[in-house]
Write the structure tokens for this entry.
Amino acid sequence: MKPFKAFRIQVSDGKVSAGIESITLNDLSPGDVLIKSVYSSINYKDALAATGSGQILKKPCLVGGIDVAGYVETSSSPRFHRGDQVLVCGAGLSETCDGGFSEFVRVPAEKVIAVPEGLSLFEVMAMGTAGFTAALAVHQLQLNGQRPEWGAILVTGASGGVGSYAIDILSALGYQVVASTSRLQNTAYLESLGASKVLSSDTLSIGNAPLEKGLWGGAVDSVGGELLCGLTRTVKPMGNIAVIGLAGGIKLETTVLPFILRGINLLGINSVSCAHELKVTIWQRLATDFRPTHIDKIVTAEITMNQLADSFDAYIQGRHSGRTVLRIAD
Ligand SMILES: NC(=O)c1ccc[n+]([C@@H]2O[C@H](COP(=O)([O-])OP(=O)(O)OC[C@H]3O[C@@H](n4cnc5c(N)ncnc54)[C@H](OP(=O)(O)O)[C@@H]3O)[C@@H](O)[C@H]2O)c1
């Protein structure tokens, strides 16, 4: 096979460099399924990896991109055949093996998921890890008994990929959704996804006392830090908080009181290492009862590989909204 294009990230002496290179199959990490990529997408984690703002790569050099969708080119696994439409999301791509910003991606079959009936390659990458994670969070809220009548779900980091899909999915399921954002200029966008109210994250009434007035039935949090701490004080009795992200910090300082006096729950969400069967279930739900209804609004940009390098800073600086899809082949 001829050389092909891939966006590679190198870490040397603590410094990160990244760019498009011409590589061959011999350069790719091993696996029994070779995928001809059609789409990938950008997630916050990709921006951390490519800019060096976070230590994502567990190896000195890897192809970037935690998501990919395309056609099976070759497979030595009986589960997949040439021409199958497949996706890989949150499976260690760009962390422990070469990732999705490449014309070809090779992975072990256990990382690969057949694209569910009813979804296109574009749609699965429009969702990507962000949509999957939002759906996993809603699934876990439901498993833990969260009911619409318990009160509104607060979605933080609302303008981002996870936040946007969480609003879309929850509102379609009948939950009242309140969006928390650092950018009130995105109010019309967030309302168009289904938020009934949009609040500034700077002025949320989260107080400082171990228990403040209960305001939210539950929460989906992709910000972490101070904001998550405030949520533990302001979620109503028995409410669930899906803990997803760290865009606002990794510290979580709280007390035991919300847990033992209100029975609130923190639900840890991990899109990478959750069981393969659960991943298949979540993708099935994304094709059926969780199917987002506003993908066209949430995808705010479609780019090509040449535009990748310039896309990451906006994520790190919290200037990006919605999702960017990377078109790798027609
Ligand atoms: N646990 C998992 O498996 C998993 C999976 C996917 C993502 N994540 C994490 O979830 C978070 C969101 O991911 P994403 O892909 O949705 O990212 P994203 O598209 O970049 O969205 C993040 C959003 O968070 C808000 N934000 C950004 N910087 C902030 C800051 N310094 N302080 C407070 N808010 C800030 C912004 O929303 P507003 O402007 O509306 O405030 C931004 O749009 C990231 O931390 C990511 O690493 C975790």
